[in-house]
Amino acid sequence: MSSRTVIRGGLVVTASDEMHADVLVEDGRVAALAATGTPAAEAFTAERVMDARGKYVIPGGVDGHTHMEMPFGGTYAADTFETGTRAAAWGGTTTIVDFAIQSVGHSLREGLDAWHAKAEGNCAIDYGFHMIVSDVNQETLKEMDLLVEEGVTSFKQFMAYPGVFYSDDGQILRAMQRAAGNGGLIMMHAENGIAIDVLVEQALARGETDPRFHGEVRKALLEAEATHRAIRLAQVAGAPLYVVHVSATEAVAELTRARDEGLPVFGETCPQYLFLSTDNLAEPGFEGAKYVCSTPLRPREHQAALWRGLRTNDLQVVSTDHCPFCFSGQKELGRGDFSKIPNGMPGVENRMDLLHQAVVDGHISRRRWIEIACATPARMFGLYPKKGTIAPGADADIVVYDPHAEQVVSAETHHMNVDYSAYEGRRITGRVETVLSRGEPVVTEREYTGRKGHGVYTPRATCQYLN
């Protein structure tokens, strides 16, 4: 049975256009757009009509970097695929790309199958997977080709976390060479983990155990050095490179230089680096543990370089790196030793709102908001134009957004399965009102109307900036 929805009178904002238009949705897809008040728009008929006057109508957000149910440091990220995707929907995100993990000594396939089992039937919104490659060998390299063919087209490696996810330069080069051949995109956690481990050991020996020392040992220069090395290894391999969670001025400079040389190098930052700083890591008592993530929060002066990078397109994407651990019982594992605090922060519900606040504050334009949060991640990870835009044929992943509503961010009212908010008490202008996922209302006028199992696995094409 056909189902139709019309969204009337809103300002439709995509990465390329803004227009007052009515949107016709049919059978889960965008069927047509027409300027509000024109005969074409008046001819749209449907069982469900939504009044979006005075509101924005925007594509659902695409969060290309989440970690649901991720094992880390003897515990697990607090959000399941069920709770995490529900919270994402509340925040106006309608697609996530999560990370399946290869454990050392195991195959990529085993890791991918384990993540499929966690997610299948549990998600409120659509999802895809990247693959974390922890063990590069001949079998792994062959598997990379097979994964690209079936829609897992990006592979993450770590220059950090020796003994866990770490790859050395030779392993990285081999994986990059394989990606150059099969069309995959290498994503890099760029920090010099070997050097950082020395600094951690030295800090603890001096009795420097508080959360703020997490930020001091993971130096910006070691992020920049690793970013530089990743860029040059990718250049040698003839492969594209996507650097995740860029946090430091010096690392942005490395990306800018590479892009000025015409290299296929891309960068992502996250809301925590744009809105938080080492001031949070230094909060009294053990409160700073809430803000422990890697790369770490930087001194506030780094924020200007990140905003500038987003405006100049030297940084292209804002994802969350959503990896929540509860303060009580999880972050507390690191009392007396900052190196044992689980690394990660909640944010999947806050990204779209925080970036709208950046529009209000004059950091970015409305269209750039949609570009960095919806369209570019969809293109980067082979989901466009199915995801990331409002155009005929696109999935009807649509958010009616009230740009004038005011809210105060709080753990009391958020929907993430974590006992604190990284943005507690922050006042924001703008709020999600209604969310459609493939035409189905997941949030309806601030009421959750979705269900687990609505979200489906979405295979991806290769990076659309390389074709």
Tell me what you see in this structure:
The protein is of the alpha/beta class. The strands form three sheets. Strands 1, 2, 3, 4, 5, 16, 17, 18 and 19 form a nine-stranded mixed sheet that branches. Helix 5 packs across helix 8 and helix 8 runs parallel beside helix 9. It is globular. The protein starts with a strand and ends in a 19-residue tail after the last strand. The model has no long low-confidence stretch (mean pLDDT 97).
Key terms:
single chain, 467 residues, alpha/beta, nine-stranded mixed beta sheet, eight-stranded parallel beta sheet, 14 helices, 23% strand
With helices defined by DSSP (H or I, 4 residues minimum), what is the helix count?
14
What general outline do the C-alpha atoms trace?
Answer: globular
Oligomer state of the chains in this structure = single chain
Percent of residues in beta strands: 15-25%
Largest sheet: 9 strands, mixed
Which spans have pLDDT < 50 for at least 5 consecutive residues?
A: none
Structural class by helix and strand composition: alpha/beta
Helix residue percentage? 25-40%
pLDDT averaged residue by residue = 97
Using only CA atoms, what is the Rg? Answer: 21 Å
The separation of the N and C termini measures 38 Å
Number of strands: 19
